[in-house]
Amino acid sequence: MNDDALRLFFALRCPPRLAEAITTWRDDLQLQGRPVATANLHLTLVFLGQQPLTQLPTLLSLAASVQVPAFDLHLDHLGRFNSGLLYLAPNQPPEALQDLAQGLRDTLLDTGINLDDRPFRAHLSLLRRCPRLPADATPSFDWPVSHFALFASEQSAHGSHYRQLQQWPLRPKESP
Ligand code: 2AM
Question: Which top CATH class is 5-169?
Answer without folding.
Answer: alpha beta
